[in-house]
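Dear support,

We are seeing what looks like truncated structure output for some complexes. This example has two components. We would appreciate it if you could run it in full and send us the complete token output so we can diff it against ours.
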Amino acid sequence: MNAILNETHDPALRSWVASANRDGTDFPIQNLPFGVFRRAGSGEALRIGVAIGDQIADLDGLVQAGVLDTLAPGTRAAIAGQTSLNALMALGRPAWSALRLALSQLLRAGADEMPAALVAQADAEYALPARIGDYTDFYTSIHHATAVGRLFRPDEPLLPNYKWVPIGYHGRASSIGVSGQQFRRPLGQTRAPGATAPSFGPCKRLDYELEVGIFIGAGNALGEPIAIGAAEQAVFGLCLLNDWSARDLQAWEYQPLGPFLAKNFASTISPWVVTLEALAPYRAAWQRNADDPQPLPYLDDASLRISGAFDITLEVAIQSAAMRSAGEPAARVSQSNFRDSYWTVSQLVAHHTVNGCNLQPGDLLGSGTQSGPDADQAGSLLELTAGGKQTIDVGGEARTFLEDGDCVVMRGWAEAEGRPRIGFGEVSGTVLPAAGGLALRA
Amino acid sequence: MNAILNETHDPALRSWVASANRDGTDFPIQNLPFGVFRRAGSGEALRIGVAIGDQIADLDGLVQAGVLDTLAPGTRAAIAGQTSLNALMALGRPAWSALRLALSQLLRAGADEMPAALVAQADAEYALPARIGDYTDFYTSIHHATAVGRLFRPDEPLLPNYKWVPIGYHGRASSIGVSGQQFRRPLGQTRAPGATAPSFGPCKRLDYELEVGIFIGAGNALGEPIAIGAAEQAVFGLCLLNDWSARDLQAWEYQPLGPFLAKNFASTISPWVVTLEALAPYRAAWQRNADDPQPLPYLDDASLRISGAFDITLEVAIQSAAMRSAGEPAARVSQSNFRDSYWTVSQLVAHHTVNGCNLQPGDLLGSGTQSGPDADQAGSLLELTAGGKQTIDVGGEARTFLEDGDCVVMRGWAEAEGRPRIGFGEVSGTVLPAAGGLALRA
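Here is the complete output from our reference environment:
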């Protein structure tokens, strides 16, 4: 790490925001993730904030107060009065780094305290951190790809291209919502085994997918690929992503062009975007076994072999409607780690652009479902229940797939002995019953 | 047709713009397609225009001149000073219809002539007509699906879901350009037959796809499907779309999640969007054979069975670099008709939203490659050359797939005896050589 990173990551740093110094907080002063918020129900304009302990530092307020005047005017303009992170994302890594350092200096213990610039997270409501132009979902967990492949193709679980191509496909940007999203169980076509004709009705195999979201920063022009060595310069940060999936719709529709209505009814992301600089102490070697092929040169980079991955623990919990009524918290159903991904963030960016495809500030990449090597580390119910053949326990209730009223909560964090925890907060979303009208028509 | 449509489609209507009255023009006064333009090289702000003969009526200028004051203030605000059609698209069908009538009355013979409001198309440059939020590509030609399926699955060319599900997948919005787009031949992974490892380099099987683009107007909220009877109310209009494809990249990457880098390096659309009202005289029955299954109720509508399709002739022509140097025009390679599509525009909209997915103003749907029932009506080189096994003649040159310097020109029009032709103009795009640097690394 360079000098600035060393300074902002100093484990001894403490903040004048007391809650940022508590053990177990996701948001110590070493984190400083970005989001877009306003006071709940206030009707105020949305603005950019940074999470610190259980508070949010209002960046518009800090610019107005003149305490960010050491930053370039372009950086201040990309913060003040902005209702999304897109302008800041477009500035690129040096601007993000300068802003991180300035915020670290403003918020650390000993600096002038500015309580007026804080809003309690408990009083806030969030918007999507960015206007997402295009959303691409990848399939980077070899454990997930193998487990799902086994359900559909027992003789060939992992396809021949998997270890060469970071498999991805385009998703739907318009239906991405921020944590707290509620959506109706989707309606659609399914075909029962052995039936000749499909039937129409509510999805019966509704699932979540535990993913990491990757926000693109500066991007690239059409026709100008991003080389793998420069790929992380194009990434603003990471968030949590739940890519809801309708497994029964998917099985019937996905040949030959891939998932469509099975995926595009809703996807939910966390409000906070954790920068790659904040995650710098939590890098890990990329995952390859000795007998795995070496990546093609455009996907290979010596330094990334050593530190291309991120050591981020990921967790899924479910709270049923009954549990919510009883005041019981969501019950954990699995845990995995982003470190076990076969493809790294930089490989995704290099692959996505190698054909000239342009990425733009605010574009979102999904990592694909993050499942670990063990069966209980699966990032979807499809895997945890072996395709719905066995149930799992959710706070005393049996589940194969999601039921109406289920709230799925995902969390993520990086931690190590002697280092502050860098957390993502959480992303939650709730399943509402299917719409009635159209279902009755079929 | 209702009274307004009857008035704007009156075959006897003539314009004070002389070129709009010439036989064979794509843009008589009965058409009035919308686009976004400025004087080429002027650096002026982009603005909304309507094609009339070989001219463009500057709608911003018409609002400023006060001659559209009969329109609702909201409609004028959605035109004046706008650099895209999104705001106008969001207003919905009644506003579009009122604007069409007002423009028809302003531009018809006998009205006050306003030559100052015209810009010659020869002097204009175009931008994308709308900010495209999400792009979805369908697969509506059963002739294309069968022909392509035969190449990959001789024993089962058409999959069991085809006649039940309007197959679609999400595409890339960021790389969509307007007619005149030039793009580098994409680089990527391919695997030779029998090889164990892939190789990296320029695409060798570069193709076009002849499609109709469908621009969404008012759209729907998340969770609120658009019923098929209301689906056309959500459609602003149609354009031409060339969905460039890298067949060799696609063959290696597309399992199990569909096409990705094979498609997202470029897509090109025509500058003009022809409204559904302009196409009202050219409706046709939807295509079903007696032994085809009846659509599920959410995809069925009595009136659309009679008139759900559009009778639009589509054409592809190619001009090689040598032909261009010699001043030879593009040579026609095939012709098909949108009428032969298995699924209609309204079925695509109803299907896309039945699960609650939200469509937004400016979203683009692609029809998928439009191939007719005869082999020479194929809308791609993949089909015309039987997967590259035979060549076709292009102005004296042999082609299997596209070569560097090839310019592909697509045209579309609706015509019938005694009725003015409703044309789409054209969409053209040119293949540049692959980038050198990365190719050398592999």
